[in-house]
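During the reporting period the student researcher (J.K.) took over the structure-prediction task from the postdoctoral fellow and processed the backlog of single-chain submissions. One of the processed entries is reproduced below for the supervisory committee.
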Amino acid sequence: MTDSTPPPSYTVRPATRADLEGARRLMLNTFYREFGYGYVPAWHRDVVDLSGTYLDDPRHQLLVAVRDGEVVATTGVRSGGPAHPPHPRWLSERYPPVTTAQLVRVYVHPEHRRHGLARTLVRRACDFAASTPGYDSIYLHTNVQVEGAEAFWRSLAKEIFDARPTGEHGPGVDTVHFEIPLPH
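J.K. obtained the following structure tokens:
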């Protein structure tokens, strides 16, 4: 994975309890403004309990990029792969929940894009997964309708399954599933 270091005006680090409200605000804004469908409880449970999901579980982590005291980017690592349904059974079986580190919530506020924040956060998330006992793969999926998302992930990860042409997700879902090799 190529290293790109954000400018020194940004601090990239594991989230603290003080960061959680800003992280939640960025996530919710992304759901509503970028994705256009808002908060969906079945998909976004972790956002309601960021502390319990990311800070209280030693196998999970929430990373943030902060500038001038504001959380401007996030990336999470959680145990678990894609659920069946809605995802295909074979995909769910390929990424079992206990041994899969799933990258989630890789969001950068629009005004702070193109500074290497997402790439840095993903690299650190992958390093965390590699140093956490029990993980043997890193999985993620992305909505390719978000501008730049597909190209970004293709620069870092290997496509495992493109759900767009199959219709296995149902109409209107443009999801591509990826894997990133565990760093050594």
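The committee noted the following: Helices lie at 20-35, 41-48, 50-55, 89-94, 117-131, 149-154.
J.K. will present the remaining backlog at the next meeting.
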